Amino acid sequence: MLEIKHLRTLVALRDGGTLVEAARRLHLTQSALSHQLKDLEDRIGVSLFLRKTKPLRFTRAGLEILQIADQLLPQLRQCESTIRKLAGGESGRLHMVIECHSCFEWLMPAINHFRDHWPDVEIDLTTSFHFDPLPALTRGDIDLVITSDPEPDPQIHYQPLFRYQSLLAIANQHPLTARTSIEPADLSNETLIHYPVERRRLDIFQRFLTPAGVDPLATRQTELTLMMIQLVASGRGVACLPNWALQPYLDARLVSARPLGDGIWPTLYAAVRQEQKDSPYLQDFLSVSAETCFERLKGIEPILAP
């Protein structure tokens, strides 16, 4: 018998194009996804797609199920959203602060989708360049913080969104392009360009330079990712950015990138107050945000359940 999870699995396989990408979108391991597909095919007694074909090709049975999935899943999502509204009321407030300053690309579509379904929830959005947002969250001044720097607090619930790799962006002509990875000492003669936040809240200091007792030759700050890329490309310095934020500039060959040491993989979280974490509209926003991330961002990894 077909289940909703089977419909979602086939849609992810079609939209992702490969088992690896489908598993990433579904927050599953590849082996778990393969087992789920085999179980489905065993249940219905027919193959749903052709193995080892590029691009991926579905059988007639697979196409029939996909047609049903495309009709049913949007209706189901709308129904779930409506039920959440009925259960928790349709009005409220969602004031957000972004510590991850490259998040607008995926966050804005999530906000637009949310606004369409929760028109009576007041939405506001700002960055945390000039203040520490977590105390403001506990006070109730704001309702959600996107951060990769969680601080233990019994009043705050941290919902993991995804893992990403921190990379060092360098000019295409930079001598460090000859290296396969970057060591802390490599930055002792470099100008490090970063967002205007405290060092303790920047991955490259907290997880890479400070533990090694290394400081860059100089630092330079900018609020705009594009300006950061332009400075790097023109040889004015180097910058540490998430792999998914760098990917468009790498695809355009504007800059190069190298991993830091053996690889630094922070986790991006949505921080909310414990008392509010079960709010229906907040849960709907987090669900839509996670879905948007894996649709739009390359190089991120799901947080697999233990």
TrEMBL record:
Domain HTH lysR-type: start-end pairs: 2-59
TM helices/strands, residue ranges: none
Entry GO terms, CC: cytoplasm
Pfam families (UniProt xref): HTH_1, LysR_substrate
Keywords assigned: Activator, Amino-acid biosynthesis, Cytoplasm, DNA-binding, Methionine biosynthesis, Repressor, Transcription, Transcription regulation
Keyword Amino-acid biosynthesis: yes
BP-aspect Gene Ontology terms: methionine biosynthetic process
Primary localization class, coarse: cytoplasm
Subcellular location: Cytoplasm
Gene3D superfamilies listed in its UniProt record: Periplasmic binding protein-like II (3.40.190.10), Winged helix-like DNA-binding domain superfamily/Winged helix DNA-binding domain (1.10.10.10)
GO molecular function per UniProt: DNA-binding transcription factor activity; transcription cis-regulatory region binding
Similarity annotation: Belongs to the LysR transcriptional regulatory family.
Name assigned to this protein: HTH-type transcriptional regulator MetR
